[in-house]
């Protein structure tokens, strides 16, 4: 039969085989595979060669360069947005009594204000720490600061606060300062070291004398509550046990307003044995328009480079040229992203709406008063002053 192999065990060869492949029929099996490969290559046209040897490597290189962008853009497909906060309207005017303000929020008024503790982990943010403490100074019972000789990523660092302590003499009578030695485990997840430092800050708060129902501000140095927000919370009764603060979110300076969605800062009515210092969501309640978050708001280019390598998201420095000082300066003045990333949002509408540089803002209204009173010294934080010191 024609569909059976011949008596010698030869291979079946279709009568409909084309001429190109005709020579592979009836060959020994050891030679058959190579013959078929030659057959396939002879049948590929020039356009296919271009696709295989040019387009595919180009695509692979493009994914290598921009894979992170692709992942962030597709985030709405694999991650749902978090549960929305319950926003509490924020009422304030300097000529309105505290009793009236508390009533507008649905809270009562206390006979005397609560004590307030402001606790931070410090790295190298001397200028922003100054603005923070000057803003909060009238209402803080104790400033609590913990400093390590290691970054979260295991890089040795100088004790920056200790060497600049003379600049903070105005808080010295109310300052509890502590230090902690780093473990210098560079291969470890940086969030482990960060978490250990926050645990140490819990112990430092006890040394500072915090007690039940005192207010505790939990936020990074650059997440600055407005002083009238803290004054409201210390005077009002029946405020939430844990209240997040919605802050205006700035990048590089108060010229680049990203959005109003910074939420990690929080204020707690302290409970012994229950309250733990943390920097994640701990409540569904959030108070609107409660201050400012000024991220990467540094005076010197060297400070930008240090933080890019030192903070918990240092994996975003995917290429060494990201740390080039000239590039960093261009990015700052443009309002672009230091890590060449897409916005971290949960819907395509929000991602597309925030793509590209941040629009310039020329409003310097309702900023920390100390900043405006010392505008010459801190002009790099004000609109129209994007050039940074090179040192």
UniProtKB/TrEMBL annotation:
<keyword id="KW-0472">Membrane</keyword>
<dbReference type="GO" id="GO:0016020">
    <property type="term" value="C:membrane"/>
</dbReference>
<dbReference type="GO" id="GO:0003830">
    <property type="term" value="F:beta-1,4-mannosylglycoprotein 4-beta-N-acetylglucosaminyltransferase activity"/>
</dbReference>
<keyword id="KW-1133">Transmembrane helix</keyword>
<protein>
    <recommendedName>
        <fullName>Beta-1,4-mannosyl-glycoprotein 4-beta-N-acetylglucosaminyltransferase</fullName>
    </recommendedName>
</protein>
<dbReference type="Pfam" id="PF04724">
    <property type="entry name" value="Glyco_transf_17"/>
</dbReference>
<dbReference type="GO" id="GO:0006044">
    <property type="term" value="P:N-acetylglucosamine metabolic process"/>
</dbReference>
<dbReference type="InterPro" id="IPR006813">
    <property type="entry name" value="Glyco_trans_17"/>
</dbReference>
<keyword id="KW-0812">Transmembrane</keyword>
<feature type="transmembrane region" description="Helical">
    <location>
        <begin position="46"/>
        <end position="65"/>
    </location>
</feature>
């Amino acid at each position: 039969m024609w569909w059976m192999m011949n008596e010698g065990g030869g291979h079946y060869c279709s009568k409909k085989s084309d001429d190109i492949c005709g020579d592979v029929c009836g060959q020994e099996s050891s030679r058959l595979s190579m013959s078929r490969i030659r057959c396939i290559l002879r049948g590929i046209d020039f356009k296919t060669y271009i696709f295989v040897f040019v387009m595919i490597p180009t695509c692979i290189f493009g994914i290598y360069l921009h894979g992170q962008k692709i992942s962030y853009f597709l985030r709405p497909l694999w991650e749902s947005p978090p549960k929305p906060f319950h926003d509490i309207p924020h009422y304030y005017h300097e000529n309105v009594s505290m009793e009236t303000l508390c009533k507008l929020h649905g809270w009562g008024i206390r006979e005397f204000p609560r004590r307030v503790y402001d606790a931070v982990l410090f790295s190298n943010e001397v200028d922003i720490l100054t603005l923070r403490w000057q803003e909060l100074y009238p209402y803080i019972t104790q400033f609590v600061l913990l400093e390590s000789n290691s970054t979260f990523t295991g890089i040795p660092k100088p004790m920056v606060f200790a060497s600049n302590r003379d600049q903070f003499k105005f808080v010295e009578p109310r300052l509890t300062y502590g230090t902690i030695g780093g473990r210098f485990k560079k291969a470890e997840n940086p969030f482990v070291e960060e978490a250990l430092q926050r645990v140490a800050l819990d112990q430092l708060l006890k040394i500072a004398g915090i007690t039940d129902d005192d207010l505790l501000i939990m936020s990074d140095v650059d997440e600055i509550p407005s002083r009238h927000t803290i004054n409201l919370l210390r005077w009002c009764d029946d405020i939430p046990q844990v209240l997040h603060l919605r802050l205006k979110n700035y990048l590089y300076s108060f010229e680049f307003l990203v959005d109003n969605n910074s939420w990690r800062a929080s204020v707690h009515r302290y409970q012994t044995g229950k309250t733990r210092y943390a920097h994640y969501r701990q409540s569904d309640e959030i108070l609107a328009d409660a201050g400012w978050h000024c991220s990467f708001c540094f005076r010197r280019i060297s400070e930008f480079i240090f933080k890019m390598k030192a903070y918990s998201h240092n994996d975003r420095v995917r290429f060494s040229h990201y740390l080039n000082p000239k590039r960093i300066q261009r990015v700052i003045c443009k309002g672009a992203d230091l890590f060449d990333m897409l916005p971290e949002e949960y819907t395509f509408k929000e991602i597309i709406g925030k793509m590209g540089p941040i629009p310039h803002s020329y409003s310097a209204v309702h900023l920390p008063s100390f900043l405006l009173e010392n505008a010459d010294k801190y002009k790099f934080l004000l609109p129209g002053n994007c050039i940074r010191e090179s040192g």
